[in-house]
Write a structure and sequence with these properties.
about 260 residues, alpha+beta, BirA Bifunctional Protein, domain 2, SH3 type barrels, 2 domains, seven-stranded mixed sheet, five-stranded antiparallel sheet, binds biotin, aa-tRNA-synth_II/BPL/LPL, Biotin_CoA_COase_ligase
Length: about 260
Amino acid sequence: MIKWPFRKKTTAETPSATIIRLDEIDSTNNYLHLHAPQTEAWMTVVTAEFQTSGRGQGTHTWESKPAENLLFSVLTHPVMVPVRSQFLLSEAGALALKEVLDGYTDGITLKWPNDVYWNDRKLSGTLIETSIGGGHIKNCIFGIGLNVNQRTFESDAPNPVSLAQILGHDIDRELLLKQIVAAFEKYYRMLENGQYNAISALYHEALYRRKGAYTYEDGDGRFEATIVEVGDDGLLVLRDGDGRFREYEFREVKFVL
Ligand code: BTN
């Protein structure tokens, strides 16, 4: 039986994440969906060496060779985050990834809504799934695929890159995972402490194409625009060459690379 809210205030004794390690699973997000109702843990991380049905955004799959990358999902119970501001969870998770990856290489940005980019190439993708109950966010599953040591990509993903391709050597995946979990804890605590403006400001600073005009494409065709902001609701606001504001939900607009 789940009792919630689980935790009203962060204290010095806040427990750190529980990490579950699996060799193979269909999808780490699916694993947590199955187990979420049984856990009251503050933060549960499940990581797998291989996924037989790794899920990407929409109908996409997520390609990852066995034991070369990081495939993991983080389950939290962010009942303190207002449902209307749930994009903050996306921002916090993306910032955690960026903070760690900045320690490995220059050129890391966050492509709206939550891809991690190295220059114009995708280093990491995220699949966030939340469940709402009684007006609160009961569960948030933040699933991350981070390309670490894989050097060739066979799927039709348009522009993948791995840390090993960037750095020219293999990376210790265990250490990287520990660093990322610690960063997740840090940013999640910021959410618990209500530091919403700080998270949003950091996210905006980290955005891919934060400054300048670039080409985008929506249902009506291509246009040049600059990013104005990402709203609390996660909508992307662009301003086109005619000065017109255009607002988009995820997948309504494409960044033309
Ligand atoms: C994207 O399409 O960019 C999102 C990819 C998310 C992939 C990760 S891998 C770990 C977790 N489990 C899944 O099935 N998907 C996410």
